[in-house]
């Protein structure tokens, strides 16, 4: 499985390189022969863009069922919530704090660097003219938004018509995903109250839906090595090389935020909550981080995590056996950070401003969607597209970052795995007397 993913990722990277090179050559030729550039833009508009849309809309198809099934299944598999005990309570609290802090770091980095603002005014106007309809609808919806209040919050999370909130034609901003997420959490919580047999049947059905949606994502990813160069070429010939500078700043900022969370936030946790030396600790887990970086898979890194927790870190087997497998499917801080960065970056590129309240909601949604995407190869793409649509940003903007996703995927997997084992270490240090009883 990893070989196939690596082969696909390599083909996508090659495709991106070909698309970038072809776009730059076209721009150079266009400087000396403008009709050639005009013809390339027309071809991109009439041929390449529709092909890219086939790829993107296959991802859009699965957004609603994938979010619902993944989140509901994640809650259902926990079993009776009142029987999880203090070990689980501390673990889930640290998972949420870990992902929320990571998402916040990513948003702060994007606000500081403003990578989307590196586009020249003319380039941004081209993007806005191409996707102007969606952006105008967003601005119109924002102008009609009532002031934030408890009533507005209830309407956002619990509309009178659940399905109308995300399938209706007159959807309001933030009205797409919030009710769906709340409904999925409620369904999962209700399923935990069922007897074991019926709960297992519910989870089997939810997992079946998730597997089917994953299959559709797989179909879309087969097109990715061809759709990515088509889309990146189209963007370059229309917008110019500004988009490459903007993308480079985004990659640098996102990578810096990921490393800052792993070696900054996690070092503080180790020192303050576990009483360990961060430098010595990261030397101990270095083989694990290398494994995560090379495989880009939290699941593939799990055996190494368990071995290092037992042999090097001397964690209680009951703690490591509970926290690490759960973390490999739920504790996705690198993914949460990345999703927030992508949404804010694409919003900046399209000139859609997200205020502080909207970014706070984005942080929460990034955490929840990161949990939903766990263990689903390529599953982050449709969820990021859903987040973009939720905030009124043209979901097609995800095409800008597809080419560099493989590079950042290696880093965010390293952060995910590193955060898992640090969390297990903190839980072990904070519950020494309960570890044996809570297995």
Detailed description of the structure:
By secondary structure, the chain is an all-alpha fold. The chain is 79% helix and 0% strand. The protein is globular, with a radius of gyration of 22 Å. The relative contact order is 0.18. Mean pLDDT is 80; it is low at 138-144, 169-175 and 434-439.
- Count the helices. How many? 19
Which consecutive residue ranges, at least 5 long each, have pLDDT under 50? 138-144, 169-175, 434-439
Number of strands: 0
CATH topology: Proton glutamate symport protein
Strand percentage lies at: under 5%
Question: What spatial form do the alpha-carbon principal axes imply?
Answer: globular
Oligomeric status of the shown chains? single chain
Radius of gyration: 22 Å
Distance between the termini: 31 Å
Largest beta-sheet details: none
Q: How many domains make up the coordinates?
A: 1
Mean pLDDT: 80
Helix content: over 70%
- Helices and strands, in order, run as HHHHHHHHHHHHHHHHHHH
Tell me, what is the CATH class? Mainly Alpha
Proper CATH architecture: Orthogonal Bundle
Question: What are its keywords?
Answer:
19 helices, disordered C terminus, 439 residues, 79% helix, globular, mainly alpha, Proton glutamate symport protein
Helix-strand blueprint:
Blueprint lengths: L1 H31 L1 H28 L1 H14 L8 H29 L7 H10 L1 H13 L5 H8 L4 H6 L10 H14 L4 H44 L2 H33 L3 H7 L1 H10 L2 H14 L5 H14 L2 H17 L6 H18 L6 H11 L14 H26 L9
In short:
The protein contains 19 helices and no strands. By secondary structure, the protein is mostly helical.
